[in-house]
From TrEMBL:
Protein name: Uncharacterized protein
Domain of life (superkingdom): Bacteria
InterPro entries referenced in this protein's UniProt entry, alphabetically: Thioredoxin-like_sf
């Protein structure tokens, strides 16, 4: 079952048509383990997977790799994943981009921008912003939290 309507999939195909280099989406989920602990189940893992399958299906440059955090702890440790749903966006290298949660609604545009930036190997930033970032004394761990309204 697809989450993207055909009109939306066409728009995604148009956006991802700008990719000239491959991007790999590494998705982390938690499958049912038989014992469900209320409040601990991955509420949006299924929807996130279906959405990522739709996005990957919109471009031959985007591939999707799926890992279960419980049954494959080595992969989640390798990428520093400690919660699900989680998406690692890889271009020519790992830029440290981690997206947690369901990228639905307006957040899908954010994910598409991230995919395009990873494919380019650079973020689309103004010159003044690039200068300011270059002057930072060290690495910065940036987190953005979004809540549905």
């Amino acid at each position: 079952m697809h989450l993207l309507r055909e009109r939306d999939a066409e728009a995604v195909r148009g956006r991802l048509g700008a990719l000239s280099r491959p991007v790999r989406l590494v998705y982390f989920t938690e499958g049912p383990a038989g014992l469900v602990i209320p409040g601990r189940e991955c509420r949006y893992c299924g929807e996130t997977l279906r959405l990522l399958e739709d996005v990957a299906g919109c471009s031959g440059q985007v591939t999707l790799e799926v890992h279960d955090r419980i049954s494959d702890p080595a992969s989640s440790t390798a990428y520093g994943i400690d919660r699900v749903p989680a998406i690692v966006v890889l271009g020519a290298r790992d830029y440290g981009i981690r997206y947690y949660g369901l990228p639905a609604g307006y957040e899908l545009a954010t994910l598409l921008d991230i995919i395009l930036d990873a494919g380019r190997g650079a973020a689309d930033l103004e010159a003044a912003t690039r200068t300011a970032v270059a002057q930072l004394p060290g690495d910065v761990h940036l987190q953005v939290f979004v809540t549905p309204t």
